[in-house]
TrEMBL record:
Domain F-box: 11-58
Recorded coiled-coil stretches: none
PROSITE patterns tied to this protein: FBOX
InterPro entries: F-box-like_dom_sf (IPR036047), F-box_dom (IPR001810)
Protein name: F-box domain-containing protein
Taxonomic lineage from the root: Eukaryota, Metazoa, Spiralia, Gnathifera, Rotifera
Superkingdom, taxonomy of origin: Eukaryota
């Protein structure tokens, strides 16, 4: 009754607002939420939500802000859409995104005569095979209507992926006669799959104009470009792993005059800049827009403005927009670095972007890193930020990683907060203790330093960070973050910082965590126990007390504990043949730490010896 009354009051309040205000409110919500909540509620709201702006594009997925993933809507919501909503609005839908569990049901609920753009998320192979078959009742839709397709395949058996993706890949182009834009899920292609799919055909699709795809190998990009999509104008390529392969001589001389927009992003590192990136891009004679985002490993020279001009820009006379984010690493010093002004002059005829550079020197690992990028920064990830970071405003960035050989202090975290206002994920890799830790505590007591605010932070990874940084985020006096924070850290660090979960100042932050991910702890530890000439195996609970383990071992060897006393020893982790006495007061903590450090194969060696009589 209370919920019904609350909904009734809400509807009364909505009815008091003019149509223009309601439209502004509803536009800020997901279309699916608007339709599910307000359609058929009353005549006025029904008229508003039937506006084309809410019906044209429909996404029946739920969004997770922590990792930006999507998943299926609850069954009751899908039931209402299929039974009541979709039959009334299906003829107005132009774009439709569906998840694995609802794909077949939603597509068969009603007709979609104006459907042009379709997204199939986390779709299983058998469902995809059924949809793209001749017998599918939707065959005419794919053949005559679908011009834009996003497909994200899911495989229960990863070893079967190569052959199955090849089949789906060919079926898509066979059935979708009017396909103009295709976006494929990560790693749909690999060298064997793609090569086998197109070996017997000159042209796979003569209608495709735009392709977004994640690849595994650099040569795969050539198989896409070498005449198999002869009308392709836009290509976005992401490599999901380190690229070692170089382009072979056979493909080096073939030109790619049709391509107008090319984007390349490598999630890991690229080897052989000249033999991969340069040779590939130079073939795109009529390229107008170019976007490069990669890190170069083990290079003999830094990639700066002069290098990009000499290797790429000179060969692309029609290029008018060039955005880039390039890291390069070199293992010796004595190199001259051009100024930002010099780099700016090189790119002044291409775009209005500013060019920013930075240099970091890592003495412990004996290398230098050079970063050059176009600003405004357009990418979601900003990696490898050090203390040399000069700041700025990066509104597109949602994921940030910090890494340095020198400690991060209060001013640095303040600069990060100001530079990345929409940061959702933060990873800190720094094993060095803070120098000004005590000063921060003193200032906080006197309320001199303001609290640093990370209002959008949802995920914090401190697995490779010193305890000081965990303390910084868990103390109420240092950093303000939302209550839905997902924290990744080492279990030992968490115990130290919270003083085994008894420290009051960390209580509020710990209680309000949405999720806590610690190093995995083995559920059981296999122990090999020696007693004289005997050896026995026993499974131990990492949470067991010293006395519980002793009782297990006594029972295992059928020992008389009334008339005899025994001591338990464990093998020294540093000296294989040496056994040391176990400290009863700290044994339980040691057992937990052992289970964490050896979570994949925890085998503990113990030895039981008769206790020495003191009489």
């Amino acid at each position: 009754m209370g919920r019904q009354a609350s909904m009734k009051n809400l509807l009364v309040q909505l009815d008091d607002l003019p149509d223009e205000i309601l439209m502004c409110i509803f536009k800020k919500l997901y279309n699916g939420e608007v339709l599910y909540s307000l359609m058929d509620v009353n005549q006025r709201l029904d008229r508003i939500v039937r506006d084309t702006i809410f019906l044209r594009d429909l996404c029946l997925l739920e969004y997770c802000p922590v990792d930006e993933s999507t998943f299926s809507l609850p069954d009751p919501i899908i039931d209402r859409f299929c039974s009541t909503i979709l039959p009334k609005i299906g003829h107005k839908i132009k774009t439709l995104f569906l998840s694995r569990t609802s794909i077949e049901r939603v597509l068969h609920t009603t007709n979609y005569p104006n459907l042009n753009h379709l997204g199939l998320c986390d779709i299983e192979y058998k469902v995809a095979q059924s949809l793209f078959s001749d017998e599918s009742p939707l065959a005419h839709v794919f053949k005559n209507q679908i011009s834009s397709l996003f497909i994200n395949l899911s495989f229960k058996d990863p070893f079967s992926r190569e052959g199955l993706t090849s089949i789906i890949f060919m079926e898509i182009f066979k059935r979708c006669a009017n396909l103009r834009c295709l976006k494929i899920n990560p790693s749909l292609f690999d060298l064997g799959t793609l090569n086998n799919s197109i070996a017997y055909r000159t042209t796979i699709c003569s209608t495709l104009l735009e392709l977004h795809v994640t690849l595994t190998h650099m040569p795969d990009c050539l198989y896409i470009l070498d005449g198999h999509f002869d009308q392709l104008r836009i290509l976005h390529v992401t490599f999901d792993r380190t690229c070692f392969e170089l382009l072979d001589t056979e493909h080096r001389l073939k030109l790619l005059p049709n391509l107008r927009i090319f984007s390349l992003c490598c999630a890991a590192k690229i080897f052989g800049y000249n033999e991969s990136i340069v040779l590939l891009v130079r073939r795109m004679l009529n390229l107008e827009e170019l976007d490069l985002n990669f890190a170069l490993a083990h290079c003999t020279k830094f990639i700066d403005g002069d290098t990009l001009k000499k290797d790429i820009i000179t060969y692309l006379p029609r290029l008018y927009k060039f955005t880039f984010n390039i890291w390069s690493r070199i293992y010796y010093n004595g190199i001259h670095f051009p100024s930002d002004e010099h780099n700016q002059n090189i790119f002044k005829h291409i775009s209005n972007n500013h060019i920013i550079t930075s240099t970091d020197q890592f003495q412990e690992k004996r290398y230098r890193r050079y970063h050059i990028y176009s600003y405004p920064y357009k990418w979601k990830l900003y990696n490898n930020i050090t203390n040399n970071f000069r700041g700025g405003l990066f509104t597109s960035v949602t994921r940030v990683s910090l890494s340095d050989e020198h400690p991060f202090e209060y001013e640095f975290f303040l600069r990060i907060a100001q530079s990345f206002p929409f940061m959702k994920e933060l990873t800190i890799k720094n094993r060095k203790a803070q120098h000004n830790k005590q000063l921060i505590k003193s200032n906080n007591n006197n309320q001199i330093l303001s609290i640093i605010e990370y209002p959008n932070l949802t995920r914090l990874d401190l697995r490779k960070a010193h305890d000081d940084y965990l303390e910084l985020f868990l103390f109420d006096t240092n950093i303000s973050s939302p209550n839905n924070l997902h924290l990744c850290c080492n279990y030992q660090s968490l115990e130290r910082v919270t003083n085994y979960f008894t420290r009051y100042i960390t209580r509020n932050k710990c209680v309000n965590l949405a999720a806590l991910y610690c190093n995995p702890m083995a559920s059981t530890i296999l122990a090999i126990v020696e007693y004289g000439a005997q050896k026995q195996r026993i499974s131990l609970d990492p949470h067991s007390s010293y006395q519980d383990i002793c009782n297990q071992i006594y029972s295992l060897f059928k020992l008389d504990t009334i008339n005899s006393k025994y001591s338990l020893q464990r093998q020294d982790s540093l000296k294989f043949g040496l056994f040391i006495n176990i400290d009863e007061r700290t044994f339980q903590n040691e057992l937990k730490q052992y289970a964490i450090k050896n979570s994949q194969n925890p085998v503990l060696r113990l030895r039981l010896i008769p206790a020495i009589s003191k009489t």
